[in-house]
Amino acid sequence: MHQLEGPLATVRHIRLRDLPPAALLRADASDPQIAEAVAAVEQASGIVIATPIYKAAYSGLLKVFLDLLPQFALAGKIVLPCATGGSLAHVLALDYGLRPVLQSMGARHIVQSQFVLEPHLKIEGDSLSVDDVTGATLLEAIYHFRCALGHAPPHDQLGHPRPERADGTASG
Ligand SMILES: Cc1cc2nc3c(=O)[nH]c(=O)nc-3n(C[C@H](O)[C@H](O)[C@H](O)COP(=O)(O)O)c2cc1C
């Protein structure tokens, strides 16, 4: 999360699994915790969405939350979709399943989605880290996200920005 922080960014983490489940399932936007999460989405210029892949799709928990947001809750916003999964067979689940939902909610720009395989993740208690190669790829995605938000200048104004990898070589 600290990779997203900078002089122009205030970062907020909403853990959907910590929201009250009954209010979530009833789409009760008057519940104070749900209302607070909805307001945080409303105030954000950019949103990183992270979900596990379950049964070849993004999680039901995420869908329940997206369903209770106003129809155009993502209007004008930049979105970076990320997923963890056990199989590369479902690497396109974000693009085929989630992207149309985000588009229908008015997202202005959706940064190339990121799929992280479970063996590349290290979970220790509440902390999650990734291996170096995955880390470099995620840093690039964050760079594109920040460019789209206007928080970082694109390296190449004519094409897709190609930032340097952590090891100094050009990407792409
Ligand atoms: C019920 C269940 C279904 C899953 N289905 C898929 C799947 O269809 N494709 C896939 O790539 N990974 C699948 N996985 C693996 C998860 O995406 C992966 O383990 C994920 O990182 C777990 O996140 P979590 O610890 O938040 O549950 C599944 C895991 C579970 C528990």
Automatic annotation (TrEMBL):
Pfam families in the record, alphabetically? FMN_red
The molecule here is called: FMN reductase (NADPH)
Query: Which keywords, in A-to-Z order, does the entry hold?
Result: Flavoprotein, FMN, Oxidoreductase
GO BP annotations of the record are: alkanesulfonate catabolic process
Q: Which InterPro entries match?
A: Flavoprotein-like_sf, FMN_Rdtase-like_dom, NAD(P)H-dep_FMN_reductase, NADPH-dep_FMN_reduc_SsuE
One molecular function GO term is: FMN reductase [NAD(P)H] activity
What highest taxon heads this organism's lineage? Bacteria
Ranges for domain NADPH-dependent FMN reductase-like: 9-117
What the record says about family reads: Belongs to the SsuE family.
